[in-house]
Amino acid sequence: MEFFKKQTPLVSYIMVIIGTGILAVSIQNFYDPIGLVTGGFTGLAIVIKTASAAVIPGGIPLWLTNVVLNVPVFILSYIIMGKKFVGRTLFGTAMLSAWLYIIPSVDLARGDMLLAAVFGALFSGAGMGIILRGHATTGGTEMVACLIHKKAIKHYSVVQIMQILDGLIVCLGLFQYGLRATMYAMIAIFVTTKVSDAILEGFKYSKAAYIITDHHKEIADRIMRDIDRGVTGMSARGMYTGQDKLVLYCVVSRREIVQVEEIVTEIDPDAFVIVSDVREVLGEGFQEYSQEA
User: Fold this and answer.
1) Which CATH class is domain 206-278?
2) CB neighbour class for 104 (10 Å; exposed up to 12, middle 13-18, buried from 19)
3) What is the pLDDT of residues 47-81, one digit of tens each?
4) What pTM, to 2 d.p., does this model score?
5) From start to end of the chain, where are the E strands?
6) Domain ranges of the chain
7) Cα 26–chain centre separation
8) Of 136-145, 180-189, 197-206, where does the model show the most confidence?
């Protein structure tokens, strides 16, 4: 993820262009052809396109609906949130609308709802993750959620409000496309979230180990010598026994956590070990910190 951390303004714009293009592929080539509504203004645009098809041949284009829905939201955001907030999102929204206009609607999943849900979500999650890495958004329900959070409902987070809005849009899809499509949309939302989180938080997962033992010196020495990882001792007190303890804390790779467990088991089989996932680690032996980040 070094590319993402050392980005210039030009790189950020390039990332937004690429991300919106990938996101548009998921909409035009997976979601729209089968009417899969996954929330957001684009999901609402799919509902409107289908509903208007009876009056307008082919329905109202997605790019047009996307623009029309975002214009009043941008105006309100400019008044309430300020131009800096709007500027970060304007380019991403414009690029998504442009890609939706350029990319033809072709059913790459050939009518298979499961393939459309999974692969559409993979593209959607990748696109959104890249856009957010470029310090931008694509407007839509995210901006609406920010406005609601600032002016009306402060005791709910922006993400919680956005989930409610997307849920309402998915419910509209339920009336338009039925229960089956809605359930596939839920699958798509889940996969999209996982993929975008992976891009935002990094693919290189590490492991953190908390080791509570009476043999802290021996275990720490073995970890530092055999695995060449640093170990930190933290003072603690057992509330049941009232005894002072030294808790060992170390961060290692997924492969090395097995060696840590073997060392602890060999020296102190009665030790208490807690292992947790670590999303991102900066420092010697892991990802190097840069002032340019």
Assistant:
1) alpha beta
2) exposed
3) 788 778 778 887 888 778 878 888 888 888 888 87
4) 0.65
5) 206-212, 232-237, 244-253, 272-278
6) 2-201, 206-278
7) 16
8) 180-189
